[in-house]
Please model this.
Amino acid sequence: MTRWLVTGGGGMLASDLVRVLDGADVRAPSRAELDITDEAAVDEAVNWADVVVNCAAWTAVDDAETHEEAALKVNAPVRLAETAGRKLVHLSTDYVFSGEGAEPWPEDAPTGPINAYGRTKLAGERAVLAHHGTVVRTAWLYGAHGPSFVRTMTRLERSHDFVNVVADQHGQPTWTHDLARQIVDLVNSGARGVFHGTNSGATTWHGLAQEVFRLLGADPERVRPVTSEAFPRPAPRPKNSVLAHGAWASAGLKPMRDWREALHRAWPEL
Model:
C-alpha cells in the first residue's frame, strides 16, 4: 500500500486530501507535529513515505512583507525538496506571476512576483523542480475545513445591508476537495512537472461574492463593486490571477470543473 505524507495537516487542503485518500496509509502531521524547517524531523517523516504532498506554507501574505526571511524558510523548504525529490508534490500559488495582462497564465509563462509572499513561493518552486519534484499552483481556495473568502461573505451577508468587494482582481475560486482529487489523480498518473490546480473559468472577488449571495437566497446587488484602492494592503495583489490548464493533458487528465459548478456542489458543506 502506498504511504502518503501530507504536511500541513489540519488545513483546508490537507484535510480534504486525507478524506479523498480514505483507506490509504496516510500521515498528516500538523505544524506542531512536523516543522518542515527542522531537517532531522523532515528526514524521518519523508523516509517513511512513498508520496509527499507539501501543504505546509506561510500564507499570511501581508505579514510576509516584513517577515520575508521567516516566510522563506517555510515556503522554500529546501531540505524537504532534497529529501523527497521525485516523490514530492509541492503546492504553490498564482502569486509567482506579476498579474499583468488579461490572458490566463500558462504553466511555462515567465514568473515575476510583485510581493514577498510570491518571491518566497517562487523560491520553493525552484528548489522542488531542481530535485525533480512536482509543483501544483493553486489560488482562491475555499473548503469545509478552514476560513475562506466564501465563509467571510456568508457571515457578512447576515450582518451587513451592503458589502463592498473588489472587482478588478480576476481569478479562479477553487474547491479544495476538487483539488485534492486532482492531486491524487496526478500522482497516480506518474506525471511530473508544473501544473495549475484551479477550477476552470474565471471571475472577480465581486463576482464570487455575488454568487455566494445568490446561494444564500440574498440579492446579489447588495454586493457593490469597488477597486483595489478601496482596500489598501501592505502587499500588492496581482490583478490577473487566472491560470491556464494546458499541462494536464500530459498527465492524461482533464482540467478541474468550472468554478460555479464546483461552488454549487460544495455549498452544502460550507
Summary: The chain has a mean pLDDT of 98. Residues 3-269 form a domain with the Rossmann fold fold (CATH 3.40.50.720).
